[in-house]
Amino acid sequence: MRSLVSFVLLLLVAVVSAISTTGNRLLVVLDDVAEKEGYSKFLGDLESRGLTLSIETPKSESLSLFHLGERAYDHVILFPTKAKGLGPSLTANILLQFLGANGNILLTLSSGSATPSALVSLLAELDIQLPADRTGLVVDHFNYDSASAPDTHDVLLLPPPGPLRSDIKDIFSAGAPADQLIAFPHGVGAALGAGELLSPILRAPRTAYSYNPKEQSEAVVDDLFAAGEQLSLVSTFQARNSARFTLVGAAELFQDKWFDAEVKKTGGKAVKTFNQEFAKRVSGWTFQEIGVLRVNWIEHHLNEVGASNESNPKIYRIKNDVTYTISLSEWSWTAWNAFSVPKNDALQLEFSMLSPFHRLPLRLNAKQSTAEQAAYTSSFKLPDQHGIFNFKVNYKRPFLTNIEEKNTVSVRHMAHDEWPRSFVISGAWPWIAGIGATVTGWLAFCALWMYSAPVGGKKESKKTQ
Amino acid sequence: MSADTLQVLASAGKGESTRTILRFIILSLIAGAAIASRLFSVIRKCPLSAGSQLLSWQSRPSRRGQLSGLLRLSAFWAALLTAASFQVSRALFTNVGSPSLSQSCARAERQSRMVADNPLVDPWFNFRATKYLVANGFYKFWDWFDDRTWHPLGRVTGGTLYPGLMVTSGAIYHALRALTIPVDIRNICVLLAPAFSGLTAFAAYLLTNEMTPSPSAGLLAAIFMGIAPGYISRSVAGSYDNEAIAIFLLVFTFFLWIRALKQGSMLWGVLCALFYGYMVASWGGYAFITCLLPLHAFVLICMGRYSTRLYVAYTTWYALGTLASMQIPFVGFLPVKTSEHMPALGIFGFLQLLAFLDYVRSAIPSRQFQTFLWLFAGGTFGLGLAALVVATSAGFIAPWSGRFYSLWDTGYAKIHIPIIASVSEHQPTAWPAFFFDLNMLIWLFPAGVYLCFQNLADEHVFIVVYALFGSYFAGVMVRLMLTLTPVVCVAAAISASSLLDTYLNVKSPNAEEHPADDNTDGKKSGKTGLKSTSKPVVGIYGWLSKGTVAGAMTVYLLLFVMHCTWVTSNAYSSPSVVLASRMPDGSQHIIDDYREAYQWLRQNTKEDAKIMSWWDYGYQIGGMADRPTLVDNNTWNNTHIATVGKAMSSREEVSYPIMRQHEVDYVLVVFGGLLGYSGDDINKFLWMVRIAEGIWPDEVKEREFFTPRGEYRVDGEATETMKNSLMYKMSYYNYNSLFPPGQAQDRVRQSRLPEVGPSLSTIEEAFTSENWIIRIYKVKDLDNFGRDHASAAAFDRGLKKKKAAKKRGPRQLRVD
Amino acid sequence: MRFSQPIASALLLAAAGVAQAASSWSFDEASLSIAAKKGADGVKEKLNAKNPLSKPVALGSTDTLKVALTAKDNGKGKRPHQAFVILKEQDSGLEAPFPLSTKDNGKAVVQISQKEIPAPLLVSTKPLKASIVIGSFGSAQAYNSQVFEVEIKTDPSAPAPQFEKPLRYGQKDEIHHIFRADPKSPPKVISLFFALAVIATVPALFIGWLSLGANLNHLAKAIGAAPLSHASFFGSIVAMEFVFFMYYTSWNLFQTLPVAGVVGAVTVLSGTKALGEVQSRRLAGER
């Protein structure tokens, strides 16, 4: 029996060999190891994607994110804890260092337990505000699950979120069945700062708001923390080094009981939750399994007839015609695919010294593209200014790996023999003619001066002058 | 010779004994030269010696002539040798610690403190350029685009330098290679200046001989030229600078000009033009010639000395010389566009007019007509002048450049072009400098000029004019002491030699010789004869008087030589990269921070790390650390320098974006506070502020760097602007840690620093040299989590981020 | 009665459903007033839960907008947990909630002045849509509908409220910067004309000389006197011009200089003799 199970598991692992691009060592921090039963589906899901889980509690001595200065894990999931503090091994500083070392963090909160101060100050550094007193509850009197929370209204039901903006790929809810809803039970909402590194995945409905069950049980009068879409339920932060951090307001969202729960809005009919798929995508994104971009190669060369087209020369000349090509791939779950720029968006090339002289769209080049990688290319004429320029591709988008590629080339001035010859320039003809006239005149004068015979008194003196 | 031999010699040269030996050699040589010239004066009566061409003795059959010639020759080469060996000896003194290209001329302490204390670091660039030339050939050099300076603009080097120096040493290099003499280009560069100083002495000899028949004058001039500190300062071995060859070219061009003028020969005129072209190719100072020759011609004309000789000489020189000068890319069309060159053109036109009038006059001899013609000539000249003015104001001709104005009004630069005023050698000369640079010559000089007045031939007019303007300009700019030195040497030599001629005459003059003497002189060299011989009978009979005067003169000469040696070894021999100081016990202590820091850069930064520093150190960083710099000593782009000035003098938050935009990786500052090294950046700081203020008057204000009582302070009372400026922070960062609390002391400004030192958030200390002279900072990258550096630093220091202020005012909405 | 239980429960459920459907939040005796700072009382409107105000109300920079209402659950006043006025910017859809301070009897009031309205809403050109949301726990259905519009009147004398969109990653607009335009030549016709004019000077010069009686009669004599030197001298002059021409077309400096040197030497050597011959003729009074 057991052998059978193990065999099945083996098969599963063999079949589903998906793996993150940054490693597969996942640390799960639970208040109590026993709790993991509640998340068994979710964790199993992760394991089946090839991540190796190691489960710890904040208190355990053995817990340490770094070993000899190197990351001991590639990803961390923090589930809510009853404890006030997270202990010495999970301070805000260490977690920031972890992000700085390209580790990814999936942080879950719950209105049930106050958020540890370490996490609060971590979030503060990332410019994410939590409700005062580190606790809050999001309710919505319009979109709640009448099955499980007919009175408290604290299980929000939301349709799968669309794309954040029209020019951003929808990677969290694409292809979601229309009737399925995301259940967001007993969650904490956060308010995001204005920074560009932050972007919300799931925002509260217009009528939702967050309140403090202890103090504002009667009515929300003043110091309303946030309401409506300003209230972010699932938010992401991608650092400049593309390390990913996701804040999920409701840990229960990942629990088995919400994976296959039936929920119904008031007056609506009962539907299945989208939670399992949603949880998979959120965790997948956080652990660099989707939305990961890779630059395969960059190539630029002279684009002139007769000129040598050696790749990536160090130096060009002003007014050269140049072609620049960059090849990109996107990792989604199991493989590298050719990256396709979302519509309404553009991959742009800057040619800049101090400030960009050109900013041009890079177009897909079918010839050099394959299934694994897509080549984008652009051709243009260098500006008439010498200096040290940069080919810059600065493609940073929400939910996609930051791409900032800089190739420095020198652009030299015209060499003395590279100018158009003077007889090509029509404006120079009179001068050339002048030279010719002078030369003939001079030769003739020499001849005359030496070989001319006198013709009488006065003129000769003039001539010989 | 290779580096290590130089090293060995250097160690030898340092020894006191060698120095004394050298001194002795020099003394004996000078004495020998003087005696030899005495012997010539004995045989002055032989006609050929009057012209005193160098090798004329060969045509003399007589033993005596040969002897004299031989002696003269030996004495002359002795003089050359003196000069050359003197320079080389200096090379040895100089090479303390840096057997490679040593720096020339540490400025004497006479420079005013606040002035940018700018070491002559051009040699570094010249050396680099020469290496490039030798490696890549002439045309590559011609089209050289240097992408390691002036980042990110780059420098079209081939078109913005005077290639003469590099091409010269390149040619020498290849010539030696052709002779299968394997020599390192570096050694050529090191020894080029001394070698050319020998030639300069030669040129001075020739020039002086054009002025006076007395051959001793020439030799004296050669010797003076050889050891006058004013010239030594620029011809030290290793001072691989344009001036090294330019001074020789200057003097030699003048010689050729005089020769051409005297003989009215087109050949000499052509030669003059060629060397003028060479000069233009070598040094920006060519404008001195461009202005002096026309001036000379003009003065001659005004004296009514117009002659076909003048016409031929000048016209040939101007036509060919201008063409030659226009071949240099850097000069290009300036000779016909800028006002500096207009006098030459004007005189050229004027001469054509005169020639024409002359011709007409010769055709129609009529006095009134002549006068009318002269008026006509004057009128046209006036008209031409007016046209020039109009053209200038209309903008067809570029007005006088700022550098030129600063020659007339010493205050001008300070107000309008701080970037020029900020260079120490553009400061007005202090009086002691004259004595310091040309000790005894300074009082022989006027005497010589006076003697030139005595019989005023064309060439003497030249000396007079040259002396006049040379001394004026030398008074305006320290640097132009260099152009004064030659004429001083010539004039001084004339007077000294006339003195010696009179007093060192072995046999007393007796009455019957003199008539002969006179008339031989008369028919020999009419006007050009000079001094005692052409005067009515004058002679010194008493041995006593002879002895005293001669003795006094000898003493003076000895003193002069000793002075020169002293100045050379003390002022002009300390390479400014390596500072030498004396320990309490008198032993020499070498402070080598510069090279330490540059070595660090070379070894610890990536190949293309951009270094931001004040422009004084640009060439050094490029040469020694081999790293790209933002600005360097070639100050052609004021704005770019001002940008650096702004970055240095603004708050961190302001300068950080600038540094990011310019891709700066490291910032280098020079700080002398610990050592009392006065030439540091805090002392130059006001110039950075001024230059920046010139471009951004409303962002950088010099006033804000002074305390309300108008003091420039760095201690507790310093203004906030001062304390927050990047330069101040970088200089004093962590400086307190060296002292017991509250005891931090700046030894340059003699002031006690505040308790708490400045703190830096956008840059971090990367390197500090042994004596804290050089401090290098690394520019931080943007914060990984999108915070500003201040708060990021605060968090790292363990401060909790304070809660976002509870909503006073409207609620903050996030817009996606 | 094994089966009655489910039926009962079903009935109960139905009942509950009816009850839910019945109870719902709303408000009445609601008023909207705008009070200017300086006494002068502004607009005063009655609000209706069913249909919104027809025309927007104007809110000046010093005014305060006051909304007073009584929240009712199924007709009787009751304190709701959520009673917001929500201002919405029409283009961006940004919303700012303003909670009403409520009493137990359902009376609720809020005062809004421009100082409390976030900048992105202040700068909006269209009027802001104001909707009232009333809801609470339990089964009662919450109320939410748009009841009036506010037009922000910023005070022209005071500095206009500033709001620039924060940086968001996205595509930027393209740049095609021509740093320096290519130099232009005048029309070919003109340059041709002048070129011809210049060339025309040569014949003019020759004619002038001829009219002055220029000739080559001494050629024979000169050649006779010094054939080699004359030939080579004049030849070298021509050759020098040829060297220049080659330099202009193809040669570089290092090819040119030696050749020029050779030719120059020839010129000098032969020149002395040739010119000497010319001089001899002059001295002989033949010129």
TrEMBL record, chain A:
Signal peptide positions on this chain: 1-18
The entry's keywords: Endoplasmic reticulum, Membrane, Signal, Transmembrane, Transmembrane helix
Pathway entry: Protein modification; protein glycosylation
Entries under InterPro entries matching the protein: DDOST_48_kDa_subunit, OST48_MD, OST48_N
GO cellular component, one term: oligosaccharyltransferase complex
GO-annotated biological processes: protein N-linked glycosylation via asparagine
Transmembrane segments: 428-451
Pfam name, any one: OST48_MD
UniProt entry tagged with the keyword Signal: yes
Record flagged with keyword RNA-binding: no
Compartments (UniProt record): Endoplasmic reticulum membrane; Membrane
Location of the OST48 middle domain: 309-452
Main location: endoplasmic reticulum
Membrane topology (UniProt): Single-pass type I membrane protein
Domain OST48 N-terminal: 25-286
Function: Subunit of the oligosaccharyl transferase (OST) complex that catalyzes the initial transfer of a defined glycan (Glc(3)Man(9)GlcNAc(2) in eukaryotes) from the lipid carrier dolichol-pyrophosphate to an asparagine residue within an Asn-X-Ser/Thr consensus motif in nascent polypeptide chains, the first step in protein N-glycosylation. N-glycosylation occurs cotranslationally and the complex associates with the Sec61 complex at the channel-forming translocon complex that mediates protein translocation across the endoplasmic reticulum (ER).
Complexes and interactors: Component of the oligosaccharyltransferase (OST) complex.
Family to which the UniProt record says this protein belongs: Belongs to the DDOST 48 kDa subunit family.
Protein name: Dolichyl-diphosphooligosaccharide--protein glycosyltransferase subunit WBP1
Natural source organism: Immersiella caudata
Automatic annotation (TrEMBL), chain B:
Main location per the UniProt record: endoplasmic reticulum
Biased composition (Basic and acidic residues): 510-524
UniProt feature, compositional bias: Basic residues: 799-816
Gene3D superfamilies for the chain: 3.40.50.12610
Membrane topology: Multi-pass membrane protein
Catalytic activity, EC: 2.4.99.18
Keywords from the named record: Endoplasmic reticulum, Glycoprotein, Glycosyltransferase, Magnesium, Manganese, Membrane, Metal-binding, Transferase, Transmembrane, Transmembrane helix
Domain Oligosaccharyl transferase STT3 N-terminal: 121-491
GO BP field: post-translational protein modification; protein N-linked glycosylation via asparagine
Cofactor: Mn(2+); Mg(2+)
Family: Belongs to the STT3 family.
Annotated protein name in UniProt: Dolichyl-diphosphooligosaccharide--protein glycosyltransferase subunit STT3
Protein species of origin: Immersiella caudata
Automatic annotation (TrEMBL), chain C:
Signal sequence segment: 1-21
Keywords per UniProt: Endoplasmic reticulum, Membrane, Signal, Transmembrane, Transmembrane helix
GO cellular component entries: oligosaccharyltransferase complex
Keyword Signal: yes
Main location: endoplasmic reticulum
Gene Ontology biological process terms from the UniProt entry: protein N-linked glycosylation
Subcellular location: Endoplasmic reticulum membrane
Entries under InterPro entries matching the protein: Ribophorin_II_C (IPR056790), Swp1 (IPR008814)
Domain of life: Eukaryota
Domain Ribophorin II C-terminal positions: 179-282
Keyword Transmembrane: yes
Membrane-crossing residue ranges in chain numbering: 189-210, 222-247
Membrane topology: Multi-pass membrane protein
A Pfam family that the UniProt record links to this protein: Ribophorin_II_C
Protein name: Oligosaccharyltransferase subunit Ribophorin II-domain-containing protein
